[in-house]
Amino acid sequence: MNSLDNLQDKLSLELMAELSNHTGAVSLPRLGKRLGVRQSSLLRCIAYLGEQSMGQHQGAGWVRLEQDGERSMLSLTEAGRQVCKEMKAPADQDAAVSTGVIQHQVQRVSFHGQASIAVLDQVAEEVPVALVYNGISHAAMLATPLNLEDFALGFSLSEAIVDDPSEIYEIECISSADVHGIEVQMRISAARFAALKERRRSLAGNTGCGLCGKESLQALPMQLPVIKSALVEQLSPASLYKAMQALNAQQVINSQTGAVHAAAWVDMQGLILALREDVGRHNALDKLLGTLASARVIHKASEPGFLLMSSRISYELVQKAARANIAILAALSAPTSLAIDLAVQAGICLTGFVREHGFVVYSHPERLQAE
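The chain above was modelled as a monomer; its predicted structure follows.
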């Protein structure tokens, strides 16, 4: 069996398409849930598409069923992946990958009497993103549709849903033509999911106060972990100035749209090691924290560094920095009073108004080198 003509069964098509979205093997229960079918139906389909012979019928050899302990795991063979490439419609092949920027027809109008001009403008893309844990939607927000796996990991860590990346077993981004938005589906450990459900249960029935999206005042933690490092390398003003000067050039989306925030991880010499952008400043920081936690850049735990934000600093950003054990947080704009209070409590050096002429230190100046 080597022809697409053999893939006439709807379930076979759906199963192959679903497996093509994964680089590794997927458990049968998860596949059944995703496709909305019983495992018995899946097994019949696997027998048809698999590598084994059934009497005189030779399987297609497109999927491979293996055991991982007690779990049955299914994956595409190389032949199966080739078939999936052939299955893709031209429209799918030509689909554009999101860059975070879209074009929009606008009218440019002058205050000085000139006629308005119709032009194409670059606009920051913003879409609803839902974070789903073990099938339960926990949070939905508007975000730039880039680096969403980093976003999910960073959010999970900074909101204390998990304590370590190893407690997240799987992250999958799913978009649907039927629903405007993206679901980021995560599978986390049973212990962490139980703790998440208990947290949600403890807030049920409370009157929402509308405070920064929290469900109640009980959801606003005011006690933060203190920075663990007893000896933190001091940051020189020259390194901070170097990073500030380099920040704009690395904000690719903002340079086109002027509408997004940036969060950057910088070494103590002022070199920007990683930067993430988003329409939301909290999202930008979560994306950066996810990048650092996934060890795609020099990890903050092994190399000293500091956090540089293009936005104002609210208490949530200080909270996320404290949970990530980041000792120095700098920003081009100002902090709020609560952000300063929490930075003092957590042992974070908080600096704001980082500009060409200098900066303002709000807490723990001992983490900076004297001029």
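The longest helix spans residues 190-203.
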